[in-house]
Write a structure and sequence with these properties.
The structure is a homodimer of 170-residue chains. Chain A is mainly alpha-helical and 170 residues long. Chain A folds into two domains: 100 residues, Winged helix-like DNA-binding domain superfamily/Winged helix DNA-binding domain (Arc Repressor Mutant, subunit A), CATH 1.10.10.10; 32 residues. The first copy, chain A, has seven helices and three strands; from the N terminus they run ααβααββααα. In chain A, strands 1-3-2 form a three-stranded antiparallel beta sheet. In chain A, strand 2 and strand 3 form a beta hairpin. In chain A, helix 1 runs antiparallel to helix 5 and helix 2 crosses helix 5. The longest helix of chain A is centred in the N-terminal third of the chain and has 29 residues. In chain A, 31% of the residues are buried. Chain B binds a DNA duplex (30 and 30 nucleotides) through helix 2 and helix 4.
Chain lengths: 170, 170
DNA sequence: TTGGAATGTCAACAAGGCTGACATAAAATG
DNA sequence: CATTTTATGTCAGCCTTGTTGACATTCCAA
């Protein structure tokens, strides 16, 4: 339990004084914050009869237009059956368009329609507002730390996906 | 979209240069990090035939022994029926003990048995290890920022619950 | 003492995970 | 050219964990 007792200088070393209590509070903070993080989109989704699974699909299709089903599976970490069910409803409802690949005709490339983009916009507006407010409340230095800890918490494979998405941004 | 363009000094003001892209990456970081955050407990829970709902119940009962069902409902933010199902299996399996209140006989006070404490220990050990590793990787200053942003992201009511739990800690 | 509020339980349903089996079409390989 | 692998989709069925509705018990206050 309270092992890890090397003397601490400046770097990551003084962290070794972290008590179970402090770690527990970090865990609870993640739990409560994630609830807030999803609360606003959840309300919008409910109005349309969708759930978080739809949100995730729409988000990442918007992020990488023309992405394939297989690529999306890697990012979302669900089974193809599960993703397929969500994609099917989104396509039926005219929010997502699925085009057969030109080079490899087995692949389906996914795009948001205008309606799909409108929903994505509404969802991400709400979520960005929350994120922006939290950033403002916490201050700019906190934001850097926030991002560093989150990135360190990811599984390596997910961190790879995250980094790939990063490239297409700042 | 790119409104919010007031000049920035030191405080929360330079944050106003936050682009949609930067906010989007914050959102994705939350998504990927939360997956990592739950991955280790999920594996342990699966071995026992439990899910995240059981984890949450066990966690907060351990945190506040003798808590009532109603109090737990406020923290977890689910319906009493949903919580009841989870509690029932935990009680049947001998992980949780439910004692009828002495003052108010409508209330049930919840306690972890030794077996329950053992599971809680295993789960929180795994989750704390992940959290500790992330903290070390990110450095001590990052940890402060991380906590500040998370707390700012919570809904006010949840922040109240979080603060209440904090009191019984450091 | 009687009716409402608080608390908790049981039943049934839906979303969205999961596995397994299988079909199809195209690409890659021997 | 035949075969295997890959990418995708579909059907069936299961589990967890949300939901609402109905109901029992207990307490308290009118």
């Amino acid at each position: 339990m309270a092992d890890d007792m090397r003397g601490g200088g400046s770097g990551g070393e003084s962290l070794l004084f972290l008590t179970d209590e402090q770690l527990r509070k970090g865990i609870e903070a993640m739990f409560f914050a994630y609830r807030g993080f999803t609360a606003d989109p959840d309300r919008i989704l409910a109005e349309h009869g969708y759930g978080r699974a739809h949100h995730r699909a729409v988000h990442f299709i918007n992020r990488s237009p023309g992405t394939t089903v297989n690529n999306l599976l890697g990012i979302l970490g669900v089974t193809k059956q599960s993703l397929n069910r969500v994609l099917r409803t989104l396509i039926e409802d005219g929010l997502v368009e699925s085009r057969i690949g030109t080079r490899d005709k087995r692949e389906r490339h996914l795009y948001l329609t205008e309606t799909g983009q409108a929903l994505e916009q509404a969802l991400s507006d709400a979520q960005r507002d929350r994120m922006r407010a939290a950033y403002k409340m916490a201050g700019p230095e906190a934001v850097t730390g926030f991002r560093q800890v989150l990135e360190a918490m990811m599984d390596p494979e997910l961190r790879r996906h995250f980094a790939t998405l990063k490239e297409s941004g700042s």
